[in-house]
Amino acid sequence: MYKYEWLLCPVCDNKTRVKIRFDTVLENFPLFCPKCKQETIIHVKQLNMSVIKEPDAKTQSR
């Protein structure tokens, strides 16, 4: 029997619309939270989630 879990938003800790199994592996997955309306890039392996921090875009000077 496989174990399923909901992915929780790393910002507000609410359930998202994504359910994963124990053997699911996600890399560079854009996780969207319908409650806080934020998208974060995550890695998931064996139900352990890690958030990928992306640097903010810098404005170009002329």
UniProtKB/TrEMBL annotation:
InterPro entries, A to Z: Cys_rich_KTR
GO function terms (MF aspect): translation elongation factor activity
Source domain of life: Bacteria
Keywords recorded for this protein, A-Z: Elongation factor, Protein biosynthesis
One Pfam family of this chain: Cys_rich_KTR
Keyword Protein biosynthesis (UniProt): yes
Annotated protein name in UniProt: Transcription elongation factor Elf1
Species assigned in the record: Anaerosolibacter carboniphilus
